[in-house]
Amino acid sequence: LKKDVDNLGDAGEVVDVADGYGNNYLMPRGLAMRATKGALADAEVIRRARSKRAEVSYEQAEQEKAELEASPVTLSAKAGEDGQLYGSVGVSALTKAIQQQLGVHIEKKRLRLERPLKSVGEHEVPVHVYRDVEATLRVEITPAAE
Fold first, then answer.
1. 56-73 burial by CB neighbour count: b if 16+ within 10 A, else e?
2. Which of 26, 78, 116, 125 could be cross-linked to 31 through a Cys-Cys bond (beta carbons 3.0 to 4.6 Å apart)?
3. pTM for the complete prediction?
């Protein structure tokens, strides 16, 4: 494989696939090459480079996890007397608040929010940082002053 392919393998791995899948999908898209003698040598080079990048990426992920867990993100929203929000706080509002308050850019798809937050108080939101690195972001929602 030249590049990572979901549910198949990572770049540099040698995998066995059906001829049609390899010829009609993987190779035309530049995701894989035939396992010839020269290609196997190239795969070894790709594996070595990948492992070096993975070490650096893992260290960066741990640093980003520490930044996300260091302090809570505070948002204010209109709420009723019972603490229920009139609207909700979703991933868009959270990513914007994280960027402004913590200075960390997070893609929306990395927030593991099952459903939008709809109540005042402290919430914990899981964030996928890297392959095996998950952070727990603390989010405090306060009622907005009218």
1. eeeeebeebbeebeeeeb
2. 26
3. 0.63
